[in-house]
Amino acid sequence: MSDPNKVWPTGLTEAESEEIHRQLIQGTQFFGMIAALAHLLAYIYSPWLK
């Protein structure tokens, strides 16, 4: 039958799903920092709203 350690519907264990979630959050934070830096550099080189 089905494995009681697996989380429906993905088939991952709870530990596996938490690891994927942690990596997703870290990737989102990394992307956000790069985007913020890019916006800062764009503002420095071509100030808008002035």
UniProtKB/TrEMBL annotation:
What biological-process terms (Gene Ontology) are attached? photosynthesis, light reaction
The UniProt GO MF terms for this protein read: bacteriochlorophyll binding; metal ion binding
What GO terms fall under cellular component here? plasma membrane; plasma membrane light-harvesting complex
Q: From the record, give the transmembrane residue ranges.
A: 30-48
Tell me the membrane topology, using the record's own terms: Single-pass type II membrane protein
According to the entry, every stretch annotated as the Antenna complex alpha/beta subunit domain falls at: 15-49
Q: Which UniProt keywords apply?
A: Antenna complex, Bacteriochlorophyll, Cell membrane, Chlorophyll, Chromophore, Light-harvesting polypeptide, Magnesium, Membrane, Metal-binding, Transmembrane, Transmembrane helix
Q: What is its main location?
A: membrane
Cross-referenced Gene3D superfamilies: 1.20.5.250
Task: Report whether Membrane shows up as a keyword of the record.
Answer: yes
Entry's Pfam families? LHC
Sorted alphabetically, which InterPro entries does this protein's record hold? Antenna_a/b, Antenna_beta_CS, Antenna_beta_dom_sf, LHB-1/5, Light-harvesting_complex
User: Residues that bind a bacteriochlorophyll, according to the entry?
Assistant: 21, 39
Q: Where in the cell is it found?
A: Cell inner membrane
Task of the protein = Antenna complexes are light-harvesting systems, which transfer the excitation energy to the reaction centers.
Q: Which family does it belong to?
A: Belongs to the antenna complex beta subunit family.
**Name listed for the protein in its UniProt record:** Light-harvesting protein B-800-850 beta chain
